[in-house]
């Protein structure tokens, strides 16, 4: 899906790591949420409350998920899931455009 219809967009940006990661929140009619964002090259650790599906729209990063020993390469067109109440790390190798869906 390359576009979303009938959504509410929160105007204020979510800004992390001194602006190296930014996103905007979209709320759908059914109450579900997604964020659309950009990550600059660097290494970052994120915490989650809800489970997430991270779709990498373009760019390239390595991800280390909970319970995994090593890093896994993820490129534009690929995705990964993050369990609820966990932390995960990314090493962003090139400017990365992403869509994060919060799973219930």
Commentary on this structure:
This protein is 0% helix and 64% strand. Strands 1, 2, 3, 4, 5, 6, 7, 8 and 9 form a 9-stranded antiparallel β-sheet that branches. The model has no long low-confidence stretch (mean pLDDT 96). Strand 6 and strand 7 (72-75) form a beta hairpin. The protein is globular and about 40 Å long. It has a single domain, classed as Jelly Rolls. The protein has no helices and 9 strands. The protein has 104 residues and is mainly β.
Offer a quick outline of the entry.
Keywords: Glycosyltransferase, Transferase. With 104 residues, the chain is mostly beta strands.
Classified by CATH, the class is Mainly Beta
**Low-confidence blocks of residues:** none
- H-E string: EEEEEEEEE
Structural class: mainly beta
Task: Provide the fold topology.
Layout: E1 7-9, E2 14-16, E3 21-28, E4 33-39, E5 42-47, E6 51-64, E7 72-75, E8 78-82, E9 87-103
Antiparallel strand pairs: 1-3, 2-3, 3-4, 4-9, 5-9, 6-7, 6-8, 6-9
Features:
guanosine phosphorylase activity, 64% strand, EC 2.4.2.2, EC 2.4.2.1, 9 strands, purine-nucleoside phosphorylase activity, 9-stranded antiparallel sheet, mainly beta, RmlC_Cupin_sf, Jelly Rolls
